């Protein structure tokens, strides 16, 4: 085939050379670009959202000693929110003792402290001395407080009861509370 003039061919029109098709490569490239854009968009949206804070409310157990009808003390386990501070734990113990009428409603804990020797010092309102208790009720009230606090404050070995910041000899003449008292297993129900 020779070209004779401008568009005149001898022996027919020459066949065009086939150029390789780029269409499959373009489609693959488009899929990769779209996939990468989707991935980064998903990642951006996921990272851009604020993190949700999940609060797990942990529960703690308090062991509280209550008077039984037989005149002894029985232990009950009470579920409360996890308590970090000693004062909050003491307030929870007092609230549970009041709810079962182990102590008078008017009795309030002013302050709680501990010394380096394992004594837990509980300072109550002066109303602690006003309550007129028969001997059995006095024993139950004193040891409901003592045993409940010692069961829940594991580092404490004994409890000193104060009323208005002052140590008392006794509440009603039965239990000597001038010195710190230890856990009393003798008043527990078998």
Structure description:
This protein is an alpha+beta fold. Helices cover 31% and strands 23% of the residues. Strands 5, 6, 7, 8 and 9 form a five-stranded mixed β-sheet that branches. Strands 1-2 form a two-stranded antiparallel ribbon. It starts with a strand and ends in an 8-residue tail after the last strand.
- In terms of DSSP E residues, the strand content is 15-25%
Report the C-alpha radius of gyration, rounded.
41 Å
Number of helices: 3
Largest sheet: 5 strands, mixed
Could you tell me how far the N terminus lies from the C terminus, measured between alpha carbons in angstroms?
121 Å
**Into which percent range does the helicity of residues fall?**
25-40%
Whole-number mean pLDDT: 84
Bulk shape: rod-shaped
String of helices and strands: EEHEEHEEHEEE
């Amino acid at each position: 085939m020779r070209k004779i003039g401008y568009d005149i061919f001898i022996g027919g029109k020459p066949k065009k050379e086939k150029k390789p098709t780029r269409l499959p490569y373009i489609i693959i490239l488009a899929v990769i670009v779209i996939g990468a854009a989707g991935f980064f968009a998903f990642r951006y949206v996921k990272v851009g959202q604020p993190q949700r804070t999940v609060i797990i409310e942990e529960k703690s157990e308090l062991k509280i000693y209550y008077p039984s009808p037989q005149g002894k003390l029985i232990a009950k386990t009470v579920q409360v929110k996890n308590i970090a501070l000693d004062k909050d734990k003491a307030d929870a113990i007092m609230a549970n003792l009041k709810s079962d009428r182990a102590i008078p409603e008017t009795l309030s804990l002013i302050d709680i402290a501990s010394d380096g020797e394992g004594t837990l010092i509980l300072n109550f309102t002066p109303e602690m001395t006003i309550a007129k208790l028969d001997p059995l009720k006095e024993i139950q009230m004193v040891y409901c407080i003592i045993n409940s606090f010692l069961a829940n404050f594991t580092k404490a070995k004994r409890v000193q009861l104060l009323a208005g910041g002052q140590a008392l000899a006794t509440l009603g003449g039965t239990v000597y509370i001038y010195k710190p008292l230890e856990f009393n297993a003798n008043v527990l129900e078998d």
